[in-house]
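Bumping with the actual sequence this time:
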Amino acid sequence: MISCPLKKRGCEWSDTVSRVIHHLEECELFPVLCPLGCVCLEGERKGEVMKLEKRRIAEHQRDSCPLGELECEFCLNKVKACEMNPHLENCEHFPVLCPNQCVIEGEEGTKHVKRRDIPVHLSDECPLQIVECPYWVYGCKEEMERKKMDLHEREFMHIHYRLSMTDMKQKLIDTSQELLTFKQNQLETSKQTNDKLDRATKKIDFLQNENENESKTKELSKVKLMEEKLATANTKIVNLEKQITEKDSELKSIKEVFYSHTSLPTGQLEWKIEGVKQEIENKEYTISDPFYVGLYKCQGYIRWNYDNTGKVAVFISVMKGGYDDKLHWPIRYKYTFILLNHINSNNNCEFTNQITKEELEKYPERFKRPTEMEIKGFGTPSFISNTEILEAKYCKEDSITLLIKIELLPAL
């Protein structure tokens, strides 16, 4: 009979000598190497693979082995324990402070954003990010924090309007001049082609009435060749006329955009609705005149009693326009509805939202290129109640003024 060699460590096993080897293979106190191969960092075995009692292996791998895998609490990926700190420094889901240290509205403390969302946060959301005025391309070179931009646009609306109109007029003049030059060139080309046709016709008549000698066969082949050239020239004339028609259509579309900008600033509709009481009582909905965001043709409309809830719903619809084939689809934008308060301008009724990736996927038909004139809107079904909209602060002389602002956002 013999006891376990690890009796001093607490093993109470005893049996015949022939059973020792079998016991040691199962003994929970027997030292074994870490299955993951981690090494000792100090002591006599520094640099060698760590040895532990068999019963401690599971605990070691779970809690202290630097080569054991842990789950990142932010991205849920498996990462070795020794690599967790470097992983957190680069984890795209790790919450980091906004570079501008903006604060959460209505809360204390700086806003935290997922590391991967920082570029989108800065480009679309951060109220402290320095952004260019939307009318930068027209000549307004102001840069300021995003939260101050709405006030800037309101205060300088008349300046922005003049800048955009000047730019639009110049483009219309340039396009008109280009079309005029194109027409003159095509008319000159058409005239030259007609002259050639006249000469070819005369030559054909001459060849047909000339002597009927042995060379007549050869000349007739030339006549046939000239007839083919005549047919080709006629085709060219038809194509030139088609190009002139397309240029006329393009000029018409540009004029449409120009005239729409003559009454409304780009990206904003100031919609005055008169006879509000009658509208609420007798109409299901009211539709605005078209307005433009860049070259996107838009329209606003109001549902006065949405689904019999007593709520006023406001929507934006992207309409079929003359430049749809040159624009990016699906469209993504930020929209704001402002019902003006005639008594206190700092207490308007406002609603702001922007198109998210989830909405683009859920309602694709509302943001893709329009193929028909049907209105497919997006907005809020509960902007304000019918009772509130008739209050004196909003309704003046039986009319209300609703501002609709749209800002184009980068594609996702």
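The tokens above came from a reply further down the thread. DSSP finds ten helices and 19 strands in the chain.
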